[in-house]
User: Fold these one by one.
Assistant:
Number 1:
Amino acid sequence: MEDLSFIAGLIGNIFSIFLLLSPIRTFSQIVKNKSTEEFDSFPYVSILLNSIMGFYYGVIRPGLYMLAIISGLGVLIQLVYVVLFLIHAPPKIRAKTAILVGVLNVGFPILVFLIIQYTMHEDLQIEVLGFIRAGISIVMSASPLVAVKRVLMTKSVEYMPFLLSFCFFTNGVVWTCYAILVEDLSILASSGIGSVLGTLQLVVYAIYSKCETPSNGILDELDDGWQHKRLLNEDNQDV
């Protein structure tokens, strides 16, 4: 069983790294233009929060070193993205992003750590932190539904590329298998929902992709994901 969970965790880490590195082209553009233009910082700040909580949970919960590894790597990668965003954002957006980072990436994790560490015994710490991590992950898993909504409204899969949708789906399935093998209900809940939403994305893509033109390549498909599109202007109407 341990060998199977190791293999599942390893495969899950590979797909997770693939997703974590998908904004590289976006930030290459930001650095090159020395401007964040109309890109939104919230997706990167929220993924950083999820990685922080995942790392904490993977450390205190025995046997979840695979989750701790990928979450720790996620913290480092997302920190780079957030720092680059802060450097190149205009003053007003930089201030907004700094507040988000202070509240979500510093204040909230510290508050959770203090409450859990000093008011709960070890077993309860694991349960509560697992519940918090699962809640954050479930909210993030639902985020691509914005892209699904746009596809249904426009009858176009431009904003929901197949490769990214496939990675979301596969990542969810693999981590669901991992959760079953290590018997962790919090990971099972978040990954299971991610799998279902990933399936929904693929079904919608299959229905509306027939009239689309071919993609320019793998990097373009990854870079066009929900978390990397410009989220101002017309996108604000979807919120």
Number 2:
Amino acid sequence: MAISSLLVPLLLLFTSSSVALGNEVGNIGHYPVVVSTWPFKEAVRAAWRAIDSGFSALDAVVEGCSACEELRCDGTVGPGGSPDENGETTLDALVMNGATMEVGAVAAMRYVKDGIKAARLVMQHTRHTLLVGEQASAFAISMGLPGPTNLSSSDSIQKWSKWKEDQCQPNFWKNIVPVDRCGPYHPKEIAELGEGTCSNANLMAAVESRSSHVGLHNHDTISMAVIDKEGYIAVGTSTNGATYKIPGRVGDGPIAGSSSYADDEVGACGATGDGDIMMRFLPCYQVVESMRLGMEPKLAAQDAIRRIARKFPDFVGAVFAINKNGLHAGACHGWTFQYSVRSPEMEDVEVFTVHP
């Protein structure tokens, strides 16, 4: 009788200890989880279907970003949007494996519509991290992706034609003198020297004017993070870049640590906004490293954005942060930001709104 009376509390103690341990190791209820910039619900659903079917975090990221490319989310992801000064659409994309820290990326890629798949091929079949331009296109086609394909659309050509009619305004040039408003352009200093005057360019004026052509519908990159059922983390980014960019421009999209970053030991981050400014600060690397040092996702995201805003108070951008346990948050500056989440306790994708 004494032995049996001791067994009951011991059994209860063992059971409760096992449940607690399971919650700690398995993070029950916290993942799998998918997080994406903006209300790109179909992209998140595509990633969730993959992850819920047992695919890896990296597979799910590719599925989600591919869906956004096919849907041409807001005209800023995939083919058919964001023409450059020559009216051409090019793609930037990145994938990162948070377990191995491998990265694959393409930038200024022409003629191939599958940006995120090309980025993954760089990771899978080369020892490089980033391929660019027509060489990236040739690589992607040689690896089996469809192409060459004209990435422009009737909408992008119409947008470009209207921009030309408006004397190529706004644009990304500064400290130049145009022969006409659409170029060719020459350095202002050369023109002033020819006139016998000294240059006194107001460099900050160019910085302050950036917000006039950075907004919701020309910088809403998809950056996505996925934690799979095993707790492995991957991130991906896809964009067709800034509208009316100077040909050859590469923004933060294919730059690891800027548009996105992941480390299984800590968590992940995704970013969107004025990539030319944001890539100078590697905000997603900053977010993950801040979380590594103990910051909660909300504070880590806010800190990364404030670091940029202190130097560029008129910049427009946002980040989301998610730790390895599935806790997520966002921060933004210069606009109202939304990000989308799907996790086990949700019946469908939910959109979270973050105010500056």
